[in-house]
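Sharing a chain and its predicted structure for anyone who wants a worked example. Both blocks are below, sequence first, tokens second.
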Amino acid sequence: MNENGNILVSQFGQLGLRVSLAKEQIGTQIATYFFNLENCAEYDKNFIKKCLEKMSAYNHTALAFVPTFESHFAVSVPLQQKQTLWLTSLPKGFVGAESNGAPFRFDFEHECTHVLVAGSTGTGKSVFLNSLIASLYLDCKDKFYLVLIDPKRVSFQQFKGLPNVDLITETDEAN
């Protein structure tokens, strides 16, 4: 098991919560540690969350409580060194990875004919869309037609002029 998981077990113990590390999942951005309580009578979600707040302050990182069916509870920890996920490392037809590192796929033909991606500044929307479009274009460029709206003329300029791609930069044209 990972050293960080054992550190969390020790810190829970110092705060009066006896746990054992059941499993860990290391993804590209987040590590998730699954814990079992030594004494199930001690299970109090609010107490566990308060322990995590104290541990977050002590470790100078955000520890998030995760409800789970695989153990009594889990804790997600952001990795200090993020891993780069290369599109070429994914199996054909996959567009990214979930937080646990498992490949992620959309069924565009049947389940997802339109995509709206939203989020605050710096959360990776453009990175996600660029990898999604590149993946689609590599795998099945003859099976779709894309209309990309880029009023800031920043995010999708590299797709300008490609067959089956219509790049709109003027908001009046988007109507």
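Comments welcome. Helices lie at 3-14, 45-59, 125-140, 171-174.
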